Amino acid sequence: MRKVLAVGGIGAGVAAFAALVLVVAALAFSVTVDGASMEPTLRDGDRMFLEFWTHDEIERFDVVEADAPSSVAGGARILKRVIGMPGDQVSVSADGRVLVRPEGDRQTYMVDNPAWSAEAGAEQDWLAVPEDAYWLLGDNWGASTDSRSFGFVDADAVHGRVVFRMLPLGRNGTIARDVRLAPVETSSAR
Q1: What CATH fold (topology level) applies to the domain 33-189?
Q2: Range with lowest mean pLDDT among 10-19, 58-67, 75-84, 143-152
Q3: Which of 15, 61, 82, 154 could potentially form a cystine with 179 if both were Cys, beta carbons 3.0 to 4.6 Å apart?
């Protein structure tokens, strides 16, 4: 009977230690949202788990943590959504739609993001996203300083993607992936 209790006590200790290591690791590899630029998707104070090992596997519409160009708050870390991938062409049309021509595709697409409650703002001519760079936007047009103002973000400046909200507990879970590209008529995209 004593051996069973001793082994059970060791097992409980190992489980508690493993749980503690898991919590510490989750907190060490997390970022806290600072500001309203990603609302309603992310809110000020949300704690997000950062997949740091995915910085080389970024896909369109991922929410990423990156170093902003040094011209923006001394290169502060930002959380934004990837809109333009390397080789893409991106634009903001006169009516405020965000347009993308993916690399190697002649079709023009409009970004359909349910989080966007207003138009993108000032018109922007077509830009080619350089290799090893991304064009990033916040989900909250009015409160987001993003690639519309500071340009492209180097791929080396991306730390990883955030996909899971850890805190607050009442809103924890994965980030919705409901952004898509919708084809538009080429003549209306110019």
Answers
A1: Umud Fragment, subunit A (2.10.109)
A2: 10-19
A3: 61
